[in-house]
Amino acid sequence: MSEPTIAVLDVDGTLVDSNYQHALAWYRALRSLGEVYPVWRIHRLIGMGGDQLVAALGGDQLEERVGEKARELWVEEFDRLVHEVAPLPGARDLLVAIKQRGHRLVLASSGKPQHVDASLELLGARDLADAWTSSGDVEASKPAPDLLQVALQKLGAPADAGSVLIGDSVWDVEAAKKAGMPAIVVRSGGFGDDELRDAGAVALYDTPADLTAALDDTPLA
User: Fold this and answer.
1) In percent, how much of the chain has pLDDT > 70?
2) pTM of the complete model
3) Are 99 and 128 in contact (CB under 8 A)?
4) How far from 92 is each of 9, 137, 170, CA to CA, in Å?
């Protein structure tokens, strides 16, 4: 490409190891409202935005019954667990390697602004990212493509700019497909290789460190 590729990176579960904390936070929030769902079912939906997760878990009736309150309580429950979140192996090194190759870098998170800020601090990423997003930037989160489209808009880039998504879930891959981006996936989301490939992932790696080591074999070479 004549212009640098844009790397759009998911944060939760891709750069920081937060998926299981989010699953527990949702479980506790819903249970406090009298709605008990197995944690494994909730975990399968992590990576999907909170605006869509409740209905995906229990249908429109659950959303109507407790959706708004569950989202409020999920934030409170996650706030109690956020100190347990740590960067995934090689996360910051991946960001550095992408920037060293001359690419622009956007951290695309559908998390709450305060949680995005915590991740940026944890990664030391404020001096590396060209822009970042939070749930406040979109009306519909993943698997809708809005978050990725906003990520490009924050750089002033057109929708058809050369861009690649790096994520960890089938929801990331589905959003990337709708946005016209190839998706590279790290396995930290807990999804099976077959699910990720069937969703459209172009490459799979165990950790950000493994992706960094193989970066020259990807569209971000």
Assistant:
1) 98
2) 0.93
3) yes
4) 12, 24, 23
Given this structure, which CATH class describes domain 6-18+86-217? alpha beta
Per domain, the residue ranges of the chain are 6-18+86-217, 19-84
Distance CA 182, CA 162 (A): 10
Q: What is the CA radius of gyration of the chain?
A: 17
Q: Which residues of 77-105 are buried (b: 16+ CB within 10 A; e: fewer)?
A: bbeeebeebebbbbbbebbebbbeeebbb
pLDDT at 3 over 60: no
Identity of the residue numbered 217: D
Q: What is the pLDDT of residue 1?
A: 41
CATH topology of domain 19-84: DNA polymerase; domain 1 (1.10.150)
Residue length of the chain: 221
Distance CA 70, CA 90 (A): 33
> pLDDT: is 159 or 37 the higher one?
37
| Tens of pLDDT, residues 98-129 | 999 999 999 988 888 888 899 999 999 999 99
State the Cα–Cα distance between residues 65 and 198, nearest whole angstrom: 34
Whether 136 has a pLDDT exceeding 80, the answer reads no
Give the full edge-to-edge strand order of the sheet including 163-167. Answer: 131-133, 104-108, 6-10, 163-167, 183-186, 203-205
